[in-house]
Every structure is written in C-alpha cells, then in structure tokens.
C-alpha cells in the first residue's frame, strides 16, 4: 500500500535557492576559468589636458620591452604579461598577479598616434597621446569693428 506524502511548497523554493546560490558562487566567487586563462586588468588613470590625453598604468615588475601598446583610431590597447618572481615554488600566500594582462580603452576623442609617446619609470607606464588638431581648443581673438 502506498503512503500519501504531504506536499510542502517551500521544499521546492529551497532547491531553487540552492541552485541560485551555486550559480552565483560559480560565477562570482569561484569563476569557472582556470588561473592560466585569466587575463588581468592592471589599474590605470586617464586625464586630459588641452593638448593631450595621458594614460598612467601601474605595472610593477614588468619590463618595458614586455609591454605592447597599440592605437587604432580612438582605441588604445595595452598588453603584456606579469612574470612569476620565482619558478617551481609552492606559495603560502600569492597576491601579486601572474599571467597576461590587457586593457582596452576607448578614448572617444581622436588622437594623433604618430606623435604618441610612451615612457616607463619605476614600474609605471605613461602614455601621452596628442589630441587631433580638430578637437584641440582654439582661442579666437575678438576684434573691434569701431
């Protein structure tokens, strides 16, 4: 003889809640990608002057020759790789990034890439991108008609 089971409407909500918890945990807390596939986004600052757009990016431990900068239209791409400080060690704590990095910045202002300059000092990359002539501010002198 079969037993009649009492239906509990909240039992299904608990499983839905568990499913949502798992979804968020896998998406945000423990991403599904492997560490070797991770692309880092180093911090940067961008400021403008009347003549230039300046991008300053912190790249500690990176050599200048290991950084690639590409300017296409009004988009700047900065790529490189953070190399491990020691090989074949077992870290107790590892907070510094290791692996490739990439930042893509859309400036929304035309720049003259042929006059762009890049400098690297103390682990800080500084890109100076001159604004295109047509977007630079102009001073127009007003003449008296008297």
Give a nutshell description of this structure.
This protein is α+β, with helices and mostly antiparallel strands and 146 residues long. The protein is built from one helix and seven strands, in the order H-E-E-E-E-E-E-E.
Gross geometry: flat
Overall pLDDT level: 83
Uncertain spans: none
Named CATH architecture of the domain at 38-135: Sandwich
Classification by helices and strands? alpha+beta
Q: Name the quaternary structure.
A: single chain
Strand content: 25-35%
Q: What is the CA–CA distance across the termini? A: 112 Å
CATH C-level label of the domain at 38-135:
Mainly Beta
Major sheet attributes: 4 strands, antiparallel
Characterization of the model:
The chain has 146 residues and is α+β, with helices and mostly antiparallel strands. The chain has a domain at 38-135: Immunoglobulin-like. It is built from one helix and seven strands. A four-stranded antiparallel β-sheet has the order 1-2-7-6, with no helix packed on it. It has a three-stranded antiparallel β-sheet with strand order 3-4-5, with no helix packed on it. Strand 6 and strand 7 form a beta hairpin. It starts with 8 loop residues before the first helix and ends in a 16-residue tail after the last strand. The model has no long low-confidence stretch (mean pLDDT 83).
């Amino acid at each position: 003889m079969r037993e009649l089971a009492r239906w509990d409407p909240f039992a299904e909500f608990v499983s839905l809640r568990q499913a949502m918890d798992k979804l968020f945990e896998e998406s945000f807390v423990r991403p599904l990608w492997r560490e070797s596939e991770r692309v880092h986004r180093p911090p940067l600052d961008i400021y403008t002057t009347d003549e230039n757009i300046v991008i300053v990016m912190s790249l500690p431990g990176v050599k200048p020759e290991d950084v690639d900068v590409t300017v296409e239209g009004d988009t700047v791409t900065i790529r490189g790789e953070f190399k491990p400080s020691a090989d074949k060690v077992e870290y107790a704590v590892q907070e510094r990034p290791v692996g490739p990095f990439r930042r893509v910045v859309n400036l929304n202002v035309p720049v003259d890439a042929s006059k762009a300059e890049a400098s690297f000092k103390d682990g800080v990359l500084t890109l100076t991108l001159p604004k295109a002539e047509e977007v630079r501010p102009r001073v127009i002198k007003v003449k008296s008609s008297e």
